[in-house]
Description:
single chain, 48% helix, six-stranded mixed β-sheet, globular, D-Maltodextrin-Binding Protein, domain 2, alpha/beta, 357 residues
Amino acid sequence: xxxxxxxxxxxxxxxxxxxxxxxxxxxxxxxxxxxxxxxxxxxxxxxxxxxxxxxxxxxxxxxxxxxxxxxxxxxxxxxxxxxxxxxxxxxxxxxxxxxxxxxxxxxxxxxxxxxxxxxxxxxxxxxxxxxxxxxxxxxxxxxxxxxxxxxxxxxxxxxxxxxxxxxxxxxxxxxxxxxxxxxxxxxxxxxxxxxxxxxxxxxxxxxxxxxxxxxxxxxxxxxxxxxxxxxxxxxxxxxxxxxxxxxxxxxxxxxxxxxxxxxxxxxxxxxxxxxxxxxxxxxxxxxxxxxxxxxxxxxxxxxxxxxxxxxxxxxxxxxxxxxxxxxxxxxxxxxxxxxxxxxxxxxxxxxxxxxxx
Length: 357
């Protein structure tokens, strides 16, 4: 073992203390840097969204930035977009097992494990992204109906949620759509579940396919169109193929919850949990407004590009609402039969929508 010998200075005790301090400063600096490095927290976040997707640009990236600001840089992220870690259907498992810390959990992709969350994807109940997101968020947070009955049993908790603006019927065929009845027989891509039930009741042919396949299918005439928000029409480059689209209705939507495992959550310091929670509340509020603004702007751009936007008249609107109610009630009854709280979830969601208006 080697000892460090300091030269004995002249000038008495004060000079000796100064020499000792200068000798130990590098060690003190190293200790401070080491403590700061250990104090930093890096979280791995993954999703399946393509570059430029509205959820990533208006919510995911701003949320990470906000967390960094609230924590003064203490919390940092490694972001893995575009299925770099896994596909959308795998995100729940990847989050539960700790392969990633925060995952993009889309209930539509794992309906067997999170069937109740589809309540926010039902048609007809809302007319804006803010209505959907704020109602769903109030139920998904700790203490909420969906947290207790869906997130907690799966060992995860949502940090923030996102819902696309309500879907419209977007048609690329030359079919002239003026009334609800005119949709009969049209082959429309839908994401499954309630959207399929809705199209069935409207005598429309639902076709299930992944979003990246829509462009080719519409261009070839394999399908007549799709159920999509207008921002998604632009994201998937469908503007040039679109001839007609409905406005003012709600054929459903897609909800996702960026979630962390309870096991990881319990290991985080209290102040970190508070920062993540505050950032979640703030980004849901700002993100939903940005989504609704973008949807209105996208509608204007579609109209400028020659797309005919059709608003159903009062009789058709009432008929659509009746169909939407039938779909919602059937959805709830089916879950009740499976010993899941379908009706209780539907009632809780409808109440949350009313409270948010």
